[in-house]
Each structure stands twice: as structure tokens, then as C-alpha cells.
Amino acid sequence: MQKEVAKLMKIHVLFVCLGNICRSPMAEAIFRHLVREKGLTEHFVIDSAGLGGWHVGSPPHEGTRNILKEKQIDPSGLIARKIRKEDLNTFDYILVMDRSNLRGVRELARKLERHRAEVRLLMEFAPEKGHSEVPDPYYDGRFSEVYELVEAGCRGFLNYLMNKHFSQETGNENKL
Ligand code: 4NP
Questions:
Q1: Is 28 in the pocket of ligand 1 (CB under 6 A)?
Q2: Which end of the chain has a smaller Cβ tally under 10 Å, C or N?
Q3: Is 103 exposed, middle or buried (CB count within 10 Å of its CB: 0-12, 13-18, 19+)?
Q4: For residues 20 and 55, is the Cβ–Cβ distance under 8 A?
């Protein structure tokens, strides 16, 4: 019984940046693509949000849309929203792009008695890149460089989840 219930539980992943129009929607689309490639879509809920509310309701920045198109990654369903403190209890993992994001999410967490989410810097999962943060391309337009970092972080994070939550033989049994 316990195992049957566990199999139905989805892993909830939220990517967070400042505006939710450049880095975190890029991460959301890339991570969804990687999860689909592994045939694990049904095991995940994947979303993104921003700490600021300036772009709520907007599609991703043109730079993010262009690089996703170039890499043939589906950009559909990416609409900016602001993070809510409830997200800390809905999501299992919150992956942030930089330390300023980390401070912002931790500030929200302080408003709650307890929370469920494990909050981590995305680049912790791609130490080989030598970057602890994903720089903001909003002002300098370096979307290709940002793509390489975000893609490596998402791959590393999915590997981490595969080891932690899925059986290695079948690759599709959720151990949550
Ligand atoms: P993002 O980039 O956090 O990667 O989405 C930004 C987008 C917009 C702004 C800042 C960063 N802004 O100040 O409007």
C-alpha cells in the first residue's frame, strides 16, 4: 500500500529567478524537455516563478524564446508569475539562479512556521562549470552563455533526482 501511494506522488520542482522572464522559464522548459526525454513526465510537476512582479502574465524574454527555438526546446506554457509563500509548501525543490534569489526565497520562508521545499542554487548541480550562479542576461543579452549553464544545471539536477528517487533498473519507479 505504502509503495503504491509513493508511486503516484509527483516530484514538484520550481525554478526561481528575479523577473521570471529570462533564466527560470528557460530552466523550466529545459528541465521539462530532459524529463520528457527520459519518459518521466508523469512523475513531475514543473513550474517557474519570479521574486519580482514586474512581468506577471508575460511570455519569456525574446532572448530566452530565441535560444529555446534554436535548441528545439518547446517554450509553450511559459507565463511569468510571482512566487508565493505557499510555493514553499507545494514544491519539493526550489532551484534558484543566484544568491540574491536565495536570500529572497529564504525571506519568504521565514514567514512560515515550517516549509517542505529544499531550496538550492541550480549551479550546485553542475560544479564542473565553475559557476556558482547563473548570471542575469536581462541587461547584457548573454543568453547563449546562460543557456549552457542552465542546461548543465538541469542535467545535473535530474541525475541527482534519478539517484535519489528512482530505481536504477527501470528508471521509472518513483521512490518518493
Ligand atoms: P530574470 O531576468 O530574473 O532572469 O527573469 C530579469 C528580468 C527582468 C528584470 C530583472 C531580471 N527586471 O528588472 O525587470
A1: no
A2: N
A3: exposed
A4: yes
Radius of gyration of the CA atoms of the chain, in A: 16
CATH topology of domain 2-165: Rossmann fold (3.40.50)
The finding on whether 22 has its CB within 6 A of some atom of ligand 1 is: yes
Low-confidence residues of the chain: pLDDT under 50 = 1-6
- Per residue in 89-101, pLDDT (tens digit) is 999 999 999 999 9
Residue 149, helix vs strand vs coil: helix
Could you identify the residue written with the cell 503504491?
4
* Whether 136 is catalytic: yes
pTM of this prediction exceeds 0.85: yes
Cα distance between residue 141 and residue 75, in whole Å:
18
3-state secondary structure of 169: coil
- DSSP code of 6? H
CB-side neighbour CA atoms (13 Å) of 154: 26
Q: Tell me, in angstroms, the distance from the centre of ligand 1 to residue 147's CA.
A: 15
Domain ranges in the chain?
A: 2-165
Helix (H, G, I), strand (E, B) or coil at 46: strand
